[in-house]
Specification:
The chain is mainly alpha-helical and 274 residues long. 74% of the residues lie in helices and 0% in strands. α2 (16-34) runs parallel beside α12 (250-273) and α10 packs antiparallel against α11 (222-240). The mean pLDDT is 89.
């Protein structure tokens, strides 16, 4: 094994590139909370907290789902089922990620110091939900969108939650047949392929509505509204890429477009507060 092979396996384990497209919404929340550019100190530690939290969440998800992944042809080549990483190594990685997350949390506002068990509990619970309820997509979204008071923060968090839940409805289509065989739950399993499409559409309409609600409650300028309009347009384009019976461009819709959406909205919010 080369010196870079082991770190590369952990990078792949947690799909680190998805952390990149999750970060902009964390920054949006920070910028809107202070109606200005947060300090470099806060931005650095928000970044570290996000990386630690998402790495922990993905590591736990891979550990808990290792048996399911091994029985799914699409995921059997992942690091744990294929033996590229041992369970002990992933447990150690999760412990390290938790330590990084806690270190970062305690560098931020005292309000968040004692709230850290809430997202961690969410990380642990999520992998089990797909075993008994199709509402698992919304739990995933809620964990991603968690935010403390005031209500505008909850509106923004809700927008993120529905954004995540919507594209997770699409993602579930990749494993529809396998999930049915293994008795797992998702909107696609419960309501079929068309139901998953309608679930994603409703979620993303809700995303735009909550971005509007958050903007109405905050002192934002025209660039925020342009950003919300761009998000709406990009979501519409994302939905145009796939349709029931034709999932050939699902990777583009799921991976590429969601990265563009989060970065684009962040840029508009950043320009609005400068």
């Amino acid at each position: 094994m080369t010196a870079l092979a082991y770190p590369a396996r952990f990078y792949s384990l947690v799909k680190f590139e998805h952390t990149i497209f999750a970060l902009p919404f964390a920054y949006v929340g920070a910028f809107l909370a202070v109606d200005a550019v947060p300090s470099a100190h806060d931005l650095i530690w928000i970044t570290v907290a996000m990386v630690g939290a998402r790495s922990l969440a993905m590591g736990l998800n891979r550990l808990i789902d290792a048996g399911l992944d091994a029985r799914n042809p699409r995921t059997a080549g992942r690091e744990l089922p294929s033996g590229l990483l041992s369970p002990a190594a992933v447990v150690a990685f999760c412990a390290a990620s938790l330590a990084v997350f806690l270190l970062a949390v305690f560098q931020l506002d005292p309000l968040v110091h004692w709230l850290w068990p809430i997202p961690v509990a969410g990380f642990v619970i999520y992998p089990y939900l797909k075993r008994w309820t199709w509402l698992c997509h919304f739990w995933l979204g809620a964990v991603d969108g968690l935010a403390p008071v005031p209500w505008e923060a909850w509106a923004l968090g809700g927008a993120v939650a529905l954004w995540v839940a919507g594209f997770d409805c699409f993602y579930a289509l990749l494993d529809l047949d396998v999930d049915r065989e293994q008795g797992l739950q998702s909107i696609a399993v419960r309501f079929g392929e068309r139901g998953a499409f309608w679930g994603a559409r409703l979620c993303h309409v809700g995303t735009v509505a909550l971005l509007v609600a958050a903007g109405l409650g905050l002192q934002v300028g025209v660039l925020y509204w342009l950003g919300a309009a761009v998000v709406a347009g990009l979501l519409a384009y994302e939905h145009s890429l796939v349709r029931p019976g034709d999932l050939r461009r699902l990777d583009t819709a799921f991976f590429t477009m969601n990265g563009v959406i989060s970065v684009a909205f962040f840029v508009f919010v950043l320009l609005d507060v400068l």
